[in-house]
Design goal:
- There is one protein chain.
- The protein has 181 residues and is an alpha/beta fold.
- The chain has one domain.
- The protein contains seven helices and six strands, in the order E-H-H-E-H-H-H-E-E-E-H-E-H.
- Helix 2 packs parallel to helix 7 and helix 5 crosses helix 6.
- The structure holds iron/sulfur cluster.
- The site of iron/sulfur cluster has 13 residues, from helix 1 and helix 3.
Length: 181
Amino acid sequence: MFDDERSKKVVFIAHCLLNQNSISDGTAVYPAMFRNVIELFMKADIGIAQMPCPELCCLGLDRGNIYGADAPIVVENTRIRIEMKKDIPNTQLDRLADYVVYEILEYIRYGFEIVGIIGANRSPNCGVDTTSDNNTEMKGMGLFMEKILCRLSEKNILIPMIGLKGTDNISEKLSPLLKSV
Ligand code: SF4
């Protein structure tokens, strides 16, 4: 099956890397997307699966913050983290993680390669190496990435996870994923 022109290689990326309009107020670093990320995967013929933005889906575009970008980012991120842990958002977050893992499992079932999962460092939800808590950026994963990793680990599925920031050397950071192509 699926023996057509497709590469059978897919990368899962945080929603805002492909759509900066989804990100919390004051934190967009590009008008639309991380073009350098998208172009690298385009050139490597790797399909891009855009994961849902958990904060947009669970808290709304404004994250429930009527003060916009007034608070420092890590302070606002800590508030978001607290909100996301409440019962209703947390249940919604579980569903989103289930949805992402379902998609991943479907690809794996048919022999596709998931080359990686790309998150957004410092995010209280999509951070991979760093997240935000206690009004600071700290080592650790965001809540959404943790849930995805937990579900994959339960199934003994190991997929490289990389967290990006706008200040990173993107091609250097993504090179481990592209080398295997
Ligand atoms: S890092 Fe995650 S939660 Fe934050 S805007 Fe991007 S996709 Fe949404």
